[in-house]
Amino acid sequence: MSLVITNIGELVTNSGSGRGRLGIVEDAAVVVADGKIAWVGSAADAPAADERIDADGAAVLPGFVDSHAHLVFAGDRAAEFGARMAGEPYTGGGIRTTVGATRDASDDELRRAAGRLVTEMRRQGTTTIEIKSGYGLDVEHEARSLRIAAELTSETTFLGAHVVPAEYQNDPWKYVSLVCGPMLAAARPYAKWIDVFCERGAFDEDQARTVLSAGKDAGLGLRVHGNQLGPGPGVQLAVEMGAASVDHCTHLDDADVEALASTGFDCMCADGGHTTTVATLLPGAEFSTRSPYPDARRLLDAGVTVALATDCNPGSSYTSSMSFCIALAVREMRMTPAEAVWAATAGGAQALRRGDVGRIAVGARADLMILDAPSHLHLAYRPGVPLIRTVLHDGVP
Ligand code: NIG
Ligand code: FE
Questions:
Q1: Binding-site residues for Zn(2+), please?
Q2: 309 within 8 A of 68, measured Cβ to Cβ
Q3: Average pLDDT for the chain
Q4: Cβ(102) – ligand 1 distance below 6 Å
Q5: Domains 2-63+359-392 and 64-352 agree in fold
Q6: pLDDT of 271 above 90
Q7: Which ipTM was obtained for this model?
Q8: pLDDT tens digits, residue range 164-207?
Q9: Secondary structure (DSSP) of 5-23
Q10: Domain formed by 64-352, architecture
């Protein structure tokens, strides 16, 4: 079955010879077949296909790649949010509240709750989703969270090192040993990545390095939560260990920015070495914790590869909307609309070291969206407005 999209006002390809960073092509058509992009070119030359979608002059973009989300949890923390908006600070301490609720939930409750969020994300244009564990924090419940995550995505991340659970509070190294031993072994069949929250109050540099080394030895790719609540060793550690991404990056010094820039830009070519450590910015977290936003301009001007993601979780950022994150990045972080759209699509793909998503090019997955707007600019220009008209995931509307 093939399908042609015609009457496209603006095609954002993120690749090839199109205009600007987004590779914009005007008067384009796209053909998808067997779940892949089969043809991209001038509308006048478009081949025939079994079906046709008339985009009616709208913009067509790659689907969003949300490279950072915590979707397997029970309950919510609306009261904590309310207290924060009345002046309480965010400390990450509420993570343990969600751990309690998650351990108490049944498999089906967790599966339904996570599935609902995935559906919510897809409706809003997200076609690739990374899902972390991290609210189980014991062998049984971390493995269960990852098993459920693996039913929903191939981008699964073991975050047993989210915080030290209450029962190990007095012996964090004992918990690190559990994470690196039996918990990693139980999580391994379902996980592609390992992540650690390297932050004061969570895991220090040595503990985080131990966790990442164990994950690397087990064949997992590396990701880091770092420099969210204050300056710290997370970014340098991520670069030193060759992590695909370090996420939050809110409190950086010059050496952090230089270290990230030194990892270069990944062409995502088939024979590329994939050595870039992407800085993944999560402005939903600063919004929901009423904290200063990361300095995206400084990172971009230094040549760092930047991604945007939702960080969807019940504590620090309960949004599933990549469009909202784009609007925040443009208004509050001085990213241009083109930089923000690139970061939410191609940037996310780089953070997951994926060359087959985040762009519209022959051979890439047919993951794309048709906006209810003529240009990508509208995603930031019309914040809060549901502008995603049609989403194709694996070529299927
Ligand atoms: O990415 N920083 C650590 N973890 C999550 C927050 C989790 C929570 O508050 O429940 C984050 O912001
Ligand atoms: Fe997170």
A1: 68, 70, 225, 311
A2: yes
A3: 96
A4: no
A5: no
A6: no
A7: 0.97
A8: 999 999 999 999 999 999 999 999 999 999 999 999 999 999 99
A9: EES-SEEE-SSTT-BTTTT
A10: Alpha-Beta Barrel (3.20)
The domain 2-63+359-392 is classified under which CATH number: 1.20.120.450, 2.30.40.10, 2.30.42.10, 2.60.120.260? 2.30.40.10
Q: Near ion ligand 2, which residues have CB within 5 Å?
A: 311
Q: Please give the pLDDT value at position 270.
A: 63
**What's the pLDDT score for residue 146?**
98
Token match 């340098």: residue? 236
Every domain of the chain and the residues it spans: 2-63+359-392, 64-352
* Amino acid identity at 47: P
For residues 268 and 350, give the distance between their C-alpha atoms in angstroms, rounded to a whole number: 7
- Quote the pLDDT of residue 154: 98
* Cα distance between residue 302 and residue 1, in whole Å: 45
**Separation of CA 383 and ligand 1 centre (Å):** 24
Give me the pLDDT at residue 19, please: 76
- The confidence score (pLDDT) of residue 272 equals 64
**How many other C-beta atoms can be found within 10 angstroms of the C-beta atom of residue 389?**
15
pLDDT of 385 = 98
| Rounded distance from Cα 189 to ligand 1 centre (Å) | 24
